[in-house]
Design brief:
Radius of gyration of chain A: 21 Å
Number of domains of chain A: 2
Helix content of chain A: 25-40%
Largest interface: A-B, 64 and 64 residues
Oligomer: homodimer
Number of helices of chain A: 15
Strand content of chain A: 15-25%
Distance between the termini of chain A: 57 Å
Largest sheet of chain A: 9 strands, mixed
Amino acid sequence: MTRYLFDNATIVTLDPEDHIYDRGQLAIEGETILSVGRAPDDFQPDERIDLGGRVVMPGLYNAHTHAAMTFARGYAEDLPLERWFNERIWRLESALTPEIVYWGTALAAVEMIRGGIVGFGDMYFHMDQVARVVEESGMRATLAWTVFGQGEEVGITVPETVDFVHHHNGAAGGRLRALFGPHSPYMCPDAFLARTAAVAYREGIGIHIHVAETPEQVKLAWDQYDMSPVELLGNRGLFETHTIVAHAIHVNEVDITTLANKQVHVVQCPSTYLRYAMGVAPVPEMLARGVNVALGTDGAGSSVALNMWREMRLAVLMQRQAHGDPTLMPGSLPLHMAAANGARALGFPQSGVLAPGNAADLIVIDTTAPHFQPLHDVIAGLVWCTEPADVRDVMVAGRWLMRDRNLLTLDEEAILSGFREALSEMLGRPLGQFRTYDVG
Amino acid sequence: MTRYLFDNATIVTLDPEDHIYDRGQLAIEGETILSVGRAPDDFQPDERIDLGGRVVMPGLYNAHTHAAMTFARGYAEDLPLERWFNERIWRLESALTPEIVYWGTALAAVEMIRGGIVGFGDMYFHMDQVARVVEESGMRATLAWTVFGQGEEVGITVPETVDFVHHHNGAAGGRLRALFGPHSPYMCPDAFLARTAAVAYREGIGIHIHVAETPEQVKLAWDQYDMSPVELLGNRGLFETHTIVAHAIHVNEVDITTLANKQVHVVQCPSTYLRYAMGVAPVPEMLARGVNVALGTDGAGSSVALNMWREMRLAVLMQRQAHGDPTLMPGSLPLHMAAANGARALGFPQSGVLAPGNAADLIVIDTTAPHFQPLHDVIAGLVWCTEPADVRDVMVAGRWLMRDRNLLTLDEEAILSGFREALSEMLGRPLGQFRTYDVG
């Protein structure tokens, strides 16, 4: 069991009171934070790390992504969403292989760790490959194998998803979690959603699902069921377990009440919403009503970058523009959304806050770089100045994933080479039709 | 005269036809680009630089900033604009010294060069100090000493501004340009604006001015002059010379026609507009009408970061959100705005495009980094993936300002230390009242 002492640290705890310790100490014992602020007098560290005033803070959670989709980065630009789906992304995905899922996710893990992300909520196909990357990388992750419930799935049958979840949930020393991934109310048959909810409730399994991304999807639900998509999910029982809904952009007051009452976790992906002009979710209202709102990058096919610093800033800016109010989403709020809210959404409540007894999941930001000077306001500096390259070190459960910008669990060169080979093989396959997005 | 050959380069010329050369050659002779695509057979370089497929592209122009204001980075967060001015920024500026202008600008130059910015349009006080930084740094810059025309100026008299301009215009081997800097129609008396315009026209001097940042400023102009602020500037003769207007957010159809007809250069600073919820300028309309629209970071007091990659992305995203149109501002447009449009606005027409005979002002982007992979679309990669830390090399007029992330003209440690000392001295001075922003 290794003991680390961070000394001379600006400790940004992101606890509910936003305690910040100036030139403080943080003691770590094994997988856990022992003390924050000042180490016990008799603490004997194996290593003392002098941060020279640099910031240590909780690691970030990318709460909704399709990590493997690095293969589609920059592949479908400047298009309306339905053309993005049908003409580009879903056509490319017709050539999907387990190999590209493994290597694409590994490439995403490199990018995420380098940017200070310690855990991710993934929803894709061939998720056994994603689980391999989680095991190897040392990251935390909550995995959902996407299914459509229309009789034809990718790499799995619907009954097998139950085995997948039980096999992976709690694996990798607790770093891995798994849940169900019905795609969305607009792609999944109604009866399938209800059956998924029943099994999830009975077996104690969570759910990760897309909802209410476009006005057309909302109209479709009203036309078919005389309910909003959020109401439909609630009515079919999908909120009776630990449920993560991605997007929930086009929601009404009743939907927000439902999300709050049912303690549904909502994930916002601002880059994608802005790039594809998908609209602005009522995030300040959700937060005011007590909904746990986390942030995610979505897949690189829509967001291009897996950069949570960018998502934090865009989450603030899009609300300020939409409401004409420069005081919206102030101070440390985006940091809390990217850390503790994400950890909670993904089922890692011992992460996302630096506090004694919590998991030693943390990142060091090199706030001595010129573009942070002068650091009048450390929170403003973190939110508005930090880029992925400013993340110096990354630790998960007391284990280093990156130190001084060197990755310690993943072989970047081997991943780049494996990725290139898998992509080239994939692009050599004939492209057919994968799914069709045809709402509205 | 040094000759460089860039080989194996992805050459993103940003010429009007958007030529891109795959694994091409770029030859440089002295201060000038000799050839693009393929070097002459008899070209004898002093140094051959193998880019291994990395991108070489024009350097960026930060066309409107107050570089010295790094001292106010993160100093005034989450406030409405008038409180930001009156309670924080203009109060802090009451303690301004020539020293903080010099060191603050030097710190800004470090950040700008590190982020691929080769030239900037600066508007501030004690501009002789800014000129020193331009001389030393090797950057290009177009400087305006801000004046209010109300009888009391900062560090200069209004008549002296003419000498300042003549002394500095064309200095530093042509890297320095200078023009007049009347603050704005809302801070400057009407007669002063007219007089400035007359002198500018007579002496062939350009103008850099703020305009139409808020609806209140527009209302004030209508109330006082029965004209929009843009009309007022035109009517008083300010568009009869090379004029740069910063912001022009709240403009109408007639204003856009005037800006187009008078070939006024408009600079947009998206970070500031979004952070302070200032509204969305009709940029697509301006561009469609032939207005030269460039981008800037504004001062770090409002934007926090001097990051042109961020400004490019935000310029796109804020328009897509405002108009609900994901096809707006597509492809390489933001790169053109940040490069050639900025160079033209600042009076450096031989810069901003990689073409034979143009100035050797360029940057190398390390597009081999994992977060660029796979580079399906090099333009999308540059716009959506690049962060300042991805800029490997910076050259201005054939001279290296940065190589392999090492600054070659500025001493970063000395600047950080000088800046800290000047800031501490400034913060030790009693804060009084500088100006009052009292429109509306």
